Amino acid sequence: MKTIKKVWRYVTKYKKLFWISFIAMLIVQALGLLAPLLVKSILDDQLLGIEKPWYETEVSNNKSVSFQNILYTQEEKSEHVVSIVFYESKYYFIDDLVINGNKKLVDNIMIITSFDGSQKEYTVTLLSHNEVIAFYKPFVNPLIVLIVLLFVRFILQIIFTYIQRITTAYININIVRDARKDAVMALQRLPMEYLETEPAGKIANRVISDVNGMINLFSTVMNLLVNASLSIIFAYIGMFYLDAKLALLTFIIFPVVYFWLRWFIKRLNSIAVKVNE
């Protein structure tokens, strides 16, 4: 803790750069959270969105699809509901709302076994290539928007990662300069007796290696403590958004990780002391 306070004393001279680095790091983590959410939307809502219920409608627009002279849409609900089922690389039209479960096709009858063991049979109609494209047309524009957003997110992540690394490196360089200048000034104020009795290698080690240790500490705090903490926070935000129960189950391993880290850090400190000596 005493060493961290010493490092922070030098960091405070560059508060502006520090906050730029921290904000850039925060944005990078937020963009990292955005990526799986965009991919989930592309896969579940767009590419697999065709399997969501379709309802008969009388309104013809860019969200409706004509099949066998009947218009269907996913935007407005009605009494007549149909389904599109993907099975073994083919798409089938079912004039009913299908249940979720394991599928099996026998001739033109699809048998679906639900997760509770119940079965239901549906008469299917194989969709042609053009008919499949027609049912996918309502998803084209949202899919393009999501892909563009995914690309923009990637570019922004590169830019803000660059900003974060440059500002952190600039802080590191300036801290090294300031700390070594202070060390040399402190040496100049010491009495000659100290310089005569203290080994020259030990003095040089304090000016060079110990200062480098301070920089490594700052880099560790920024890259591991802050960055890792933000990663965990944003990861759990995404996990709770996708599946709260599964996210809660991961807390079971936290006590194991905590006690293992305590043992590991204790061992690491003892080894580090021996190496330094």
Would you give an account of this structure?
An 8-stranded antiparallel sheet has the order 2-3-1-4-5-8-7-6. The model has no long low-confidence stretch (mean pLDDT 84). The longest helix is centred in the middle third of the chain and has 60 residues. It contains 7 helices and 8 strands. Helix content is 65%, strand content 15%. The chain has 277 residues and is an alpha+beta fold. Helix 2 runs parallel beside helix 5.
Main sheet specs: 8 strands, antiparallel
Question: Strand arrangement, largest sheet?
Answer: 2-3-1-4-5-8-7-6
Rg value: 31 Å
Structural class per helix/strand content?
Answer: alpha+beta
How many helical elements?
A: 7
* Large-scale geometry: elongated
Question: Using DSSP, what is the number of strands?
Answer: 8
Distance between the termini: 21 Å
Reading the helices and strands in chain order gives HHEEEEEEEEHHHHH
β-strand percent reads 15-25%
Helix content: 55-70%
Poorly predicted tracts of residues = none
Q: Average pLDDT, to the nearest integer?
A: 84
